[in-house]
């Protein structure tokens, strides 16, 4: 049992690993022995995460990429491959949000959110899974979805649509790549203190969230580490693929 969650010898690529939630999950992977590539649009914040990991005894390096740009993702994949020789774990944690009402929503804004939350992850999976297959590497893809992916939340139309699409992508890829030994799952977080959530958290919305969350509190970013490490481990979750793992304080189980 002591080796069940040991990721020693594994390399993880954390797309959006410089964000609040992505960095916490990346640190969890590093704490369990994985070598971690922190990938984000902002090199400075990515390097800050790397510094924390290294100071804690881990191995990590920062890379720059924009998930809405295929060229930058290919460049990052090339650099990571040179650094580590390949990867076994892909964590997809980029995300953006908007509260624009549906009837006021412009297609430029819609496209921007979809490009980051959905299209960008599709492109990322194409690039990184293809390399895994070419190198005959088995492994784990972990997509970060949302409670709004199953029952859409008010005020966040495009975000909800993008995350519903991500769930479908997750299950499709799980079927597609199981024969290659590549598992694909999604984590469905509840309400966590990510920057994109703070923008829409007025007092009324917080009260509504608490009424619909049996544990009656927000999640802490570190509380996503357990599910992340479990899904990353080919020992602990070897027969788990196409799954949507809720880490939401009971939000998804609540009605009236």
Write the layout of secondary structure elements.
Layout: E1 11-15, H1 20-31, E2 35-40, H2 43-55, E3 59-64, H3 70-84, E4 89-92, H4 107-134, E5 139-144, H5 157-177, E6 182-189, H6 195-198, H7 203-211, H8 225-232, E7 244-247
Parallel strand pairs: 1-2, 1-4, 2-3, 4-5, 5-6, 6-7
Helix pairs in contact: 1-8, 3-4, 4-5
SS element count, helices: 8
N-to-C order of helices and strands: EHEHEHEHEHEHHHE
Q: Mean pLDDT, as a whole number?
A: 95
Query: Would you state the CATH class?
Result: Alpha Beta
Strand order, main sheet: write it out: 3-2-1-4-5-6-7
* Tally of individual domains: 1
Q: What is the CATH fold-level name?
A: Rossmann fold
The geometry reads as globular
Rounded to an integer, what's the Rg over CA atoms? 17 Å
Largest sheet: 7 strands, parallel
Strand percentage: 15-25%
According to DSSP, the number of beta strands is 7
- Structural class of the helix and strand makeup? alpha/beta
Distance between the termini: 40 Å
CATH superfamily, by name, is NAD(P)-binding Rossmann-like Domain
Indicate the percent of residues in helices.
40-55%
Low-confidence stretches: none
CATH architecture group name: 3-Layer(aba) Sandwich
């Amino acid at each position: 049992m002591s080796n069940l969650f040991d990721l020693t010898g594994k390399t993880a690529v954390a797309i959006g690993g410089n964000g609040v939630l992505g960095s916490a999950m990346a640190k969890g992977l590093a704490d369990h022995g994985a070598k971690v590539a922190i990938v984000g649009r902002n090199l400075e914040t990515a390097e800050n995460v790397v510094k924390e990991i290294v100071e804690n005894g881990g191995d990590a390096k920062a890379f720059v990429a924009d998930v809405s740009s295929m060229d930058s993702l290919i460049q990052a994949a090339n650099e990571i491959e040179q650094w580590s020789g390949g990867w076994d774990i892909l964590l997809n944690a980029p995300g953006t949000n908007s509260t624009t009402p549906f009837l006021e929503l412009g297609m430029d804004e819609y496209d921007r959110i979809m490009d980051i939350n959905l299209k960008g992850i599709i492109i990322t999976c194409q690039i990184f899974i293809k390399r895994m297959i070419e190198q005959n590497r088995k492994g784990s893809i972990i997509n970060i979805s949302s409670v709004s992916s199953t029952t859409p939340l008010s005020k966040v139309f495009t975000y909800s649509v993008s995350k519903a699409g991500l769930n479908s992508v997750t299950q499709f890829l799980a079927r597609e790549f199981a024969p290659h030994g590549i598992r694909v799952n999604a984590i469905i977080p509840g309400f966590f203190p990510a920057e994109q959530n703070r923008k829409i958290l007025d007092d009324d919305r917080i009260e509504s969230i608490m009424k619909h969350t049996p544990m009656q509190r927000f999640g802490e970013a570190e509380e996503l580490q357990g599910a992340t490490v479990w899904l990353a481990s080919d020992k602990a979750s070897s027969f788990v693929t196409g799954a949507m793992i809720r880490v939401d304080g009971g939000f998804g189980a609540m009605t009236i």
